[in-house]
Specification:
This protein has two helices and five strands. By secondary structure, the protein is of the alpha+beta class. It has one domain: HIT family, subunit A, CATH 3.30.428. It has a five-stranded antiparallel sheet, covered by helices on one side. A hairpin with a 7-residue loop joins strand 2 and strand 3. The chain is globular and about 35 Å long. It starts with 5 loop residues before the first helix and ends in a 9-residue tail after the last strand.
């Protein structure tokens, strides 16, 4: 594995972030370049480089993150109006940081197809 990712530095508090949720397995914080009025990133504290590299042993962590979305979107005020989850994988998928993260987007109508 390469040097610490920017998200590992956020998780270890080496870099500041506007944190909206945290537990022992994951951290959610507001994106610094939001693409919607509400744009947060949910990251596992244990680095998985990308969803395409997730292993069977990561299933519990990934399931935990997905079940936390309801709580996070409620706290962000977008649980009832609607939201979109995005996971990018690889260069052509739009991945910019080699650390799995789930974009949580909402606060406005989101177009389809996305990009």
């Amino acid at each position: 594995m390469s040097d610490k990712s920017i998200f590992e530095k956020v998780c270890s508090r080496e870099l500041p972030a506007d944190i909206v949720y945290e537990d022992e397995l994951c951290l959610c914080f507001r994106d610094i370049a939001p693409q919607a009025p509400v744009h947060a990133l949910l990251v596992p504290k244990r680095r998985i480089d990308r969803i395409g590299l997730a292993q069977e042993g990561d299933a519990s962590l990934l399931g935990h993150m997905m079940t936390k979305v309801a709580e996070i979107t409620k706290s962000l005020g977008i649980d009832e109006s609607g939201f979109r989850l995005v996971v990018n994988n690889g260069k052509d998928g739009g991945e910019a940081v080699p650390h799995l993260h789930i974009h949580i987007l909402g606060g406005r109508p989101l177009e389809w197809p996305p990009g």
